[in-house]
Amino acid sequence: MYNPLLTAFVCAADCGSFTKAAEKLYLSPTAVMKQINTLESHLQLQLISRTNQGIRLTPAGESIYADAKFLFDYSARAVRRARQRMSDYEKTFCVGTSILNPCKPFVAGQLSLSQTKSESYRTALAASPQKSLSTHHCIKVSSSNVRYP
Question: How many DSSP H helices and E strands does the chain contain?
Fold first, then answer.
C-alpha cells in the first residue's frame, strides 16, 4: 500500500548504516544503497547524507522518515479494519419475514435478541411478541449460535 523503497529507507535510518540495514532486511548493502538511491532520484530529494561514520538524515529525509512511519502504521490499521469488516460481513445473514412466514420462533429460539443489528426490531418484538414484522432484518451471529433443525 506504500512504496516498498520506503522500507529500506526507514530501516537504514533506524540502523544508522547501510550494512546493518542490509542485515536486517536480508539484502546486500549494495541492494539497500541502490534502493535508497532510486528513492532519492524518484523524489528528486537528497534524503541521506553519507559519512565515514554512517548515514544521517537530511531535513528532507527527516520529513520523509516521519511520514513513512505514519504510512506504515496507517497501512497496518487499514488492513486490520478491512479484515475486521470482512469478518463481520461473513457472519451476517438476512432473514426475510412476513405475516405468513414469521421469523420470531427462529430468532427467539436460535439467537438471543441482543445479537440483532436492528434496535427497532428488538423494540417491536418486545412490544408485540405475537406480531411478526414484514421487513428484512440482518442478524449478526457466530457459527456456534446457529442450530440447524
Answer: 6, 4
The mean per-residue pLDDT over the stretch 44-54 comes to 92
Residues 144/110, Cβ–Cβ less than 8 Å? no
Decide if pLDDT at 73 tops 70. Answer: yes
Cell of 141: 451471529
What stretches of the chain adopt beta strand conformation (E)? 48-51, 54-57, 92-96, 136-140
Q: Does residue 96 sit in helix, strand or coil?
A: strand
Separation CA 57–CA 69 (nearest Å): 14
Helix, strand, coil fractions of the chain, as percent rounded to 5: 60, 15, 30
- What does the pLDDT look like over 1-30, one tens digit per residue? 678 899 999 999 999 999 999 999 999 999
pLDDT tens digits for 110-130? Answer: 444 444 445 555 555 555 554
With a CB cutoff of 8 Å and minimum separation 6, the contacts of 2 are 68, 71, 72, 75
Distances in Å between the Cα of 7 and the Cα atoms of 23, 26, 76 are: 13, 12, 14
pTM of the predicted model as reported, rounded to 2 decimal places: 0.58
